[in-house]
Every structure is written in structure tokens, then in C-alpha cells.
Amino acid sequence: MATAQHFITIHPALMQVLSPEQAWHYRVVPQGRDESRLQLYADEAILTAGLEQELEIILGSAVSLTPAASSLIESTLLKYFLKGGNSTVKREAKESVTGSSENFLLRLIKEAKALGSSDIHLETYEERCRVRVRIDGLMVERYLLEKKDYPAMVNKIKIMANLDISEKRLPQDGRIFFTQDGLKFDIRVSVVPTLFGEKVVLRLLSNDSTNIDIHTLGFSGFDLDNFLEGIKRPNGMLLISGPTGSGKTTTLYATLKLLNKESRNVLTIEDPIEYTLEGVNQVQLREDIGLDFASAMRTFLRQDPDVIMVGEIRDTATADMAIRASLTGHLVLSTIHTNSAWGTVSRLIDMGVPPFLLASTLNTTVAQRLLRLLCPHCKKEIPLDPKLYPRQYKPSAQLASHFVAQGCEQCFFTGYRGRKAVYEVVPIDAVLAEKIKKSEFNIGHELQERNIKTLTENAFSLFERGETSLEEIYPLLFN
Predict the structure, then answer these.
(1) Across the strands, what pairs with 202?
(2) How far, in Å, CA of 462 to CA of 423, rounded?
(3) What is the Cα–Cα distance from 50 to 40, expressed in whole angstroms?
(4) How many beta carbons lie within 10 A of that of residue 196, not counting itself?
(5) Which residues contact 435 (CB under 8 A, 6 or more apart)?
(6) pTM given for the model
(7) 8-state DSSP, 325
(8) Which of 114, 350, 369, 404 is the most buried (most CB within 10 A)?
(9) Which of 20, 9, 14 is nearest to 107 (CA)?
(10) 101 band by pLDDT with thresholds 50, 70 and 90
């Protein structure tokens, strides 16, 4: 019998021996493999004498079955094999699910989409190749591929993305418009040569903006009021800062949905276009032909815009054009890479923007991070040892207990389910504008006077309410 635990651990190298449909239909999961035989755990409640022989015909390999508890099989299937369509599997059907299979790539993409993954990574090393997916911001290994099958897999992706399959020495970027089984979305493809072959990253982009709502992103009531006040102004810059993958683009799109009215001309320049918005004129960045952020902004000013959204301010030329656009009566939305809302000011000054110009154009600056939420079905409350905080951090409230991640069927045994943004919103008033003119960056006292919560304070509030773990907010406690 299988050991008594929440689920059976399956080595990634065995994930290809069964399709999800086969695993659910026969209620079996891989146990191991030797030169002559495939070992599987089978649900003891439905284990029959003819099952082993039937699986040998289906899988084309000698099979040995070990009985396991139904609950153990169920939890393992939920963790490793996405449920869906298993009732339609024909018992005589035979499906090869190795890396060389024609349908493995399509199944991989659909599986990643169903898991809510943002990226698929295909990587090759000296002895092995693996597939990882990013779920809720963390990488999870899903499959191991045969080394001999890997080049063919890369070529399939290149063909789908209209890339050059003969070029293996230079990085390449492409795009796939995926349409299968009612799914329609874009995939951004990046191929880069590494020591042992080409690494491929597939970024899954959602074209559906219907579920984006500014009120459900994570703003506190006070921060949301300040943010909405900023976008009501007819001109100026509203900048959102944070590292890659912190949800800045989603916040921008939620803002554009509010600003997208028949009476406004809204233009965006993006890389890539992650969501499509009816009524918004969206332009895809094409640096290879000279269409960069700065040149697009220059053209936009001749397009009679009311609102301009720039994907990112990444250089002096783009910053200058954003300042120019906001000075001439336009509302400019963009993102920038800094650690805090007020850090945006010093970053732009470092890029060469004169402080007096920045003071008269910047109307709101925002910082945000994404934090994983504890699974409500399995989180566990335990006593809190104050020594778990960073040494220099002084919590705003003394907590006797906190919640930690456990893992269950509902969250694929990760302990977390979904993510929520935490924000720091600083509206620029006359006093703060004067601080910008004088290049004074220490404004902690002014933020306290205005009851503006920092990223650290908002993250701790989420932890205090038991929605996330200390592990998730720990990096923010150093700010």
C-alpha cells in the first residue's frame, strides 16, 4: 500500500507516461519505472483483475499495479493532473504524451492556461530538459523531456511563432495567436541561446479585460479615493512603480477602463498588448523598425489625445516626452521601476528631468506589489514568535498568532490560492510639489500627516487579517 500522506509525490520524469484523461479515467498515478515495467498506483476501490492488462494495451508497456487508498489517488490526481474531459476518453484510445508528441505542446499550453499560469519555461541542461510554469509568481516544475526530443519541441514553437528555425545563435522574439477548443489568447515567445541549447519562455497573455475591476485589485478605501482623484485631473502624470510581475499593467488597464468613454480619445503604446479594450487605440511597440516609446509619444501628440498610456518610462527620451505631453494638457499614465512611490521622484530626477518640471506635472505616484493569499480551505493558525520578524522591524501591532500555509486539494497543495496587490498611493499636493522642487526626499513626516499608508503598513494589515503569511510580506518589512 502507498504510504499515508496527503498525496503521492510524482517525479517530473514520470509525468509524461499518462495523459490527464488516462489518469482520471483509470484512476492511476505513476509510481516508478524500470527497464521492463511501468509501476503505477491504482485506486483500490476500482482495482480489477483486467485493469493491468488493459493498461498494458493502452500504454504499450508492461505494467504493475500497487493498490492505494481512494482519497490518496484523488488528491494526487488533483495536484498533478488537471481534471476535464476524462469521461469522454475511449478505452481503446492510445495517446503518446512524450515530448516528441504532436499534441504535447498544445496540451501543455492548455494545462498552463487552466492552472492560471503566466509563463511556461522550457529549459535544457547537460543531462536533462525540463518544463516549468509560473503560478502565482512562483516557478513549479511540471515535466521532464527527453534530451533528444527537445530540439523538435523548440522548432515547433518557432514555426508557430513565425521564427527562423535555422537561427540558433541569436535571441529571437515572436508571437503566437492560440486558438484551440474555444480558447483564444496571445502568447509572447522569447528564445535565447544557452550553453546546452535554446531556452524558450512562453508568456500567456489574456485578451479578456472584462474581469478587471479597479475596486477588486486590493486598494484600501482611502488609497482608492486618492488614486481616483488623480485620474480625474485633466492633465499631469500618474505613475505606477514596482518590479516586473507586480501587477502594474493590470492596474493601468483597470484605470483605462474607467477613463474609456466616448467623449475621450485614449491612446496607448505597449510592449506587449496584454489586454484588448474596445474604444482604446492600442499600439504595439516595434523597436526593430524604430517605433519605440518616445517616437510613439511624439506621434500621439499629433493625434489629438485626451489620455496617453505609455507601457514603461525606461529612458530619458520617454520621460521627456511624457513631461511634454502632460504639460500640454494631457493625462499621461505609465509605469516605472522604483522601490517606493516617492522613489519615482528621485528616479526621474536621476534620468535628467528638471525638478521644477516634475513638480508641476506629477499628480499621483503609486507603488505596488503582489502578495500570494493563503488558501482559505487549509490555512492554519499558530502562535507567533516575534523573533520571526526581521531584526530591525517594529510591528505596528502585537499579534499573538498568525496563519501559515498548509496545502490541500483546493490549492494544488501549495498552501496559497490567488494573489492580491498592496499599494502605496501618494497624491502630489502643493506642499509635496515644493519638496520635489527642492529635491527633498525625506517625506515620512508629511505622509504620516496625510494618513498615507506605506507598502510595508498595507502588507502588514493583510498579514494581520490572516489573508497572507509572514513569509509573503517578509521582503516588504525591510522597506
Answers:
(1) 120, 189
(2) 11
(3) 15
(4) 15
(5) 441, 443, 446
(6) 0.75
(7) H
(8) 369
(9) 20
(10) low
List residues bridging with 115 in a β-sheet: none
Using one digit for the tens of pLDDT, what is the confidence trace for 51-75? 888 888 888 888 888 898 888 888 8
Grid cell locating 94 = 492510445
What pLDDT shows up at residue 102? 57
Question: What does the DSSP 8-state code read for residue 267?
Answer: E
What CA–CA distances, in Å, run from 56 to 51, 53, 395?
Answer: 9, 5, 60
Q: Are 200 and 154 in contact (CB under 8 A)?
A: yes
Give CA–CA dist 227/310, Å, rounded.
18
CB under 8 Å to 308, separation ≥6 — which residues? Answer: 266, 267, 268, 297, 300, 325, 330, 331, 332, 333
For residues 86-119, one letter each, b for 16 or more C-beta atoms within 10 angstroms of the residue's C-beta and e for the rest, the string is beebeeeeeeebebebeebbebbbbbbbebebbb
DSSP type of residue 331: E
From CA 408, how far away is CA 90, in angstroms rounded? Answer: 30
Please name the residues in contact with 117: beta carbons below 8 A apart, sequence gap of 6 or more.
Answer: 133, 134, 135, 204
Extended strands (E) in 379-415 = 380-383, 401-404
Report the candidate in 368, 371, 349 with the shortest Cα–Cα distance to residue 454: 368
- Nearest-angstrom CA–CA distance, 137 and 372: 8
Alpha helices in 95-207 (DSSP H): 104-114, 150-160
- Under 8 Å between Cβ of 44 and 445: no
- Yes or no: say if 312 and 336 are a contact pair by the CB < 8 Å rule: yes
Cβ atoms within 10 A of the Cβ of 80, count?
22
Q: Which long-range contacts (CB under 8 A, 24 or more apart) does 157-165 make?
A: 157/105, 157/122, 157/189, 157/191, 157/200, 157/202, 158/189, 158/191, 160/189, 161/187, 161/189, 163/189, 163/191
Interatomic CA distance for residues 464 and 453, integer angstroms: 15
Q: Can you tell me the mean pLDDT for 344-348?
A: 93
Q: What's 32-82 look like in SS3?
A: EECCCCEEEEEECCCCCCCHHHHHHHHHCCCEEEEEECHHHHHHHHHHHCC
Residue 220 grid coordinates: 484600501
Between these two residues, 21 and 329, which has the higher pLDDT value?
329
Burial class (CB within 10 angstroms; exposed 0-12, middle 13-18, buried 19+) of 241: buried
